[in-house]
Q: What sequence folds into this?
């Protein structure tokens, strides 16, 4: 299944504390806002790139080094972290300028693509060890990679690499890529694996992988970690809430977290029946032999609600799939139906029961629906009809790992920043029409993650998210009127404005003569 993510993951925002399995409050630091797009400021995609290295440079053989792949981690995930030898040339007149052909004949990328790139050099400016950068380049003549630095016209970014002991290291999301088909930039090196070992230096293995189930079965999380041989210590910390990796959060994990047993490879975190339900973030930090941060990862899991007695059946829900169709090219628009329940203690809070069990992929792929001992839900908090949001929860489906859903409005509302969410237009709304409740969310306001795609990073997704809660059975409730059954159809939106060509999945008013029907276009 081919993804069509062209937008970026949101950053975490404001929680003041969190649950920690070892006791106490976890003072993780949130980032300050959500990012929904990546724009190349003041520059369009060129037809070709001219090197910025000095034109009068004399290039001399500098020896053999290593290239550890990270740029292709979205396009060819299987090669991320692989390393191979490359030949270096250095500018004689300008120390610190290098060039290489990392995807030439015989390299793993060339073998995977069955195509070698023996022409497009990668130019590396390592004159300043604290501000190493790579000039824009076209790999294979059609995939443009761009280091997010001012020298490449990313005026609000400073994702420089660093040179230490002959090793150039670039952090996660320090590059963007695009093609003429994509038309806009998306992050790469999300893995943070991209490193370059200059001739005479030794490349370290700082691989770090974290695996946690999206659902915490029986209020327990089994956490599995694998680490490269040059990571000597791993620190681990789990907190209630949604957080992201940052330097300050890494430091908190180092100071407050537990030391992970690398020889054992896994640990079971027992949260207990009294642990609050919701999304939990686990951050792990790998340290080198000197105690320095070599790598870090985060992953998300969920504690499910236990009090089923608080929920009552309230009818059925109809909704067009507004998630998978914005992620996968081959996802066919379809109308889904499931049971819906409402909270007794919090009227207006709904949950859709096993919402994707009726999806066509459930029949096409044996492992699409995840079979746990509990149901899976989409939680919709519509207690305030003008400030509706989707709460964090696993969807109970396996696409590229376990799929999870959240919303920007929920992220901010649950952290006490509802005013900001309102200002940004992140909230959805609930209206009532003829006894049916209609819930909608703004396009791009939902957050979707898959546990095995980019380490479970959340992306902004969702288009035409609309849920119709019906108090009884039946696909369409008719508003009776006299008229002809076979008259030409006219369509109107819920505000009474004529719609010439309604889209599949759109809720409309259909009029045939004097007979009026509310329906979802199929």
A:
């Amino acid at each position: 299944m081919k993804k069509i993510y062209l937008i970026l993951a949101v950053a975490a925002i404001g929680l003041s504390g969190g649950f920690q399995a070892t006791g106490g409050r976890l003072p993780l630091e949130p980032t300050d806002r959500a990012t929904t797009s990546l724009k190349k400021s003041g520059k369009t995609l060129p037809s070709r790139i001219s090197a910025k290295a000095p034109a009068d440079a004399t290039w001399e053989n500098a020896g053999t080094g290593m290239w550890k792949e990270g740029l292709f981690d979205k396009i060819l995930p299987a090669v991320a972290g692989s390393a191979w030898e490359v030949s270096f040339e250095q500018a004689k007149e300008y120390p610190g300028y290098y060039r290489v052909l990392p995807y030439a004949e015989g390299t793993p990328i060339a073998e995977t693509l069955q195509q070698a790139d023996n022409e497009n050099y990668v130019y590396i400016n390592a004159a300043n060890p604290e501000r190493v950068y790579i000039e824009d380049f076209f790999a294979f003549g059609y995939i443009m990679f761009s280091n997010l630095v001012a020298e490449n016209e990313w005026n609000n970014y400073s994702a420089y690499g660093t040179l230490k002991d002959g090793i150039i290291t670039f952090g996660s999301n320090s590059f963007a890529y695009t093609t003429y088909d994509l038309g806009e930039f998306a992050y790469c090196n999300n893995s943070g694996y991209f490193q370059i070992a200059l001739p005479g230096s030794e490349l370290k293995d700082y691989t770090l992988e974290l695996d946690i189930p999206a659902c915490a079965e029986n209020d327990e999380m089994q956490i599995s970690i694998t680490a490269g041989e040059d990571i000597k210590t791993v620190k681990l910390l789990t907190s209630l809430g949604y957080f992201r990796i940052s330097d300050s959060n890494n430091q908190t994990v180092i100071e407050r977290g537990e030391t992970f047993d690398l020889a054992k490879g896994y640990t079971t975190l027992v949260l207990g029946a009294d642990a609050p339900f919701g999304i939990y973030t686990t951050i792990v930090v790998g340290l080198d032999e000197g105690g320095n941060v070599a790598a870090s990862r985060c992953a998300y899991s969920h504690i499910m609600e236990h009090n089923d007695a608080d929920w009552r059946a309230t009818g059925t829900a109809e909704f067009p799939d507004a998630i998978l169709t914005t992620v996968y090219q081959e996802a066919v628009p379809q109308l889904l139906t499931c049971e819906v329940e409402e909270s007794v203690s919090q009227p207006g809070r709904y949950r859709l029961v096993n919402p994707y069990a009726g999806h066509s992929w459930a029949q096409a792929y044996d492992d699409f629906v995840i079979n746990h001992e509990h149901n899976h839900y989409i939680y919709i908090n519509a207690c305030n009809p003008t400030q509706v949001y989707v709460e964090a929860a696993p969807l109970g489906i396996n696409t590229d790992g376990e799929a999870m859903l959240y919303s920007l409005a929920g992220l901010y509302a649950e952290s006490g920043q509802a005013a900001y969410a309102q200002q940004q237009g992140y909230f959805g709304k609930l209206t009532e029409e003829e006894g049916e409740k209609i819930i909608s969310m703004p396009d791009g306001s939902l957050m979707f993650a898959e546990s095995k795609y980019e380490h479970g990073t959340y992306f902004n997704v969702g288009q035409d998210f609309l849920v119709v809660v019906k108090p009884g059975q039946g696909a369409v409730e008719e508003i009776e009127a006299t008229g002809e059954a076979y008259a030409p159809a006219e369509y109107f939106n819920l505000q009474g404005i004529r719609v010439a060509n309604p889209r599949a999945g759109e809720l409309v008013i259909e009029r045939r003569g004097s007979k009026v029907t509310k329906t979802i276009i199929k």
About this structure: Residues 247-256 form the longest helix (10 residues). The helical segments are 108-113, 247-256, 360-364, 408-413, 418-424. The chain is about 5% helix and 35% strand. The radius of gyration is 26 Å.
